[in-house]
Design a protein that fits this description.
The protein is 18% helix and 36% strand. The protein has 245 residues and is an alpha/beta fold. Strand 4 (52-59) and strand 5 (63-68) form a beta hairpin. Helix 4 packs parallel to helix 5. The longest helix is centred in the last third of the chain and has 10 residues, at 183-192. The radius of gyration is 17 Å and the shape is globular. The termini are far apart.
């Protein structure tokens, strides 16, 4: 489906751990969304002018939700929307892909959102999930209900998700691996995986975006094949392809 622009009403804005789960009424965009798709969301008006990119979190035939972390003025204003407010939404965007029925998901912080959306197409696997505090860990029960083994760790307890991977490295052999988190986390994971594991690993790349359609080029990411746009050629790339220098 070609991306469409819609003005959608907010059905709910509630706290989910340290994040905001915002649900919008929708009967078209999410119905045509597939794994790998995302949306651009903004406030009506011109302040702030640019929309922000968000992964789908979940949805149904009448609504969909995104997970928001306040990072700046734009996301702070979005975090304050109320039921009945209307948002500008463009989507579905991005390059779709077909995930395996089972695999390894690795998430840090709000990186849990796209891998949770991906799990919609999976029957199980293992989730490695790191956060700052225990109360920041979300959706773990839902992952277990989907058939995933869930392994968590927090900075509060003195550990990082990379520490979990070092402990269970052999478990990754022969499996497709999907990672979403900070660039530092992804770079560290790339240093932990062996050559065979890297060949089967993919990463969700997060970059600032202005349009989501490839026009502004603001989301260009450096790869070993040259620069690529996250909005049209991603957001997911083979881990071996992305450069983190």
């Amino acid at each position: 489906m070609e991306p469409t622009f819609r003005i959608l009403p907010v059905l709910e804005n509630k706290k989910l751990g340290p994040y905001n789960k915002i649900t919008m009424k929708d009967v078209q965009i999410y119905a045509h969304a597939e794994c790998g798709n995302f949306v651009m969301i903004g406030l009506q008006g011109f302040d702030p002018y640019l929309s922000r990119p968000f992964s789908f979190l979940e949805g149904n035939r009448t609504s969909f939700s995104i997970l928001l972390k306040v990072k700046g003025r734009g996301t702070e204003l979005l975090s304050k929307v109320k039921k009945g407010d209307k948002l500008k939404v463009l989507g579905p965007l991005g390059k779709i892909f077909c995930p395996p029925k089972e695999g390894i998901l690795i998430a840090g912080g709000i990186g849990i959102a796209p891998v949770y959306y991906q799990s919609r197409w999976m029957k199980g696997g293992v989730l490695f999930y790191g956060a700052k505090r225990k109360k920041d860990l979300i959706l773990t029960r839902e992952f277990k209900d989907k058939g995933f083994t869930v392994r968590t760790i927090t900075e509060e307890d003195g550990g990082l998700v990379t520490d979990l991977l070092k402990e269970y490295t052999d478990e990754l052999d022969g499996k497709q691996i999907f990672v979403c988190g900070t660039k530092g986390m992804i770079k560290s994971i790339k240093g932990i995986l062996n050559k065979e594991q890297i060949e089967k690993a993919y990463v969700y790349v997060e970059e600032r975006m202005g349009c989501g359609l490839g026009g502004c080029k603001s989301c260009a990411v450096k790869t070993f094949e040259g620069y690529k746009l996250v909005c049209t050629e991603g957001p997911i790339f083979p881990l071996k392809e992305v450069k983190f220098d």
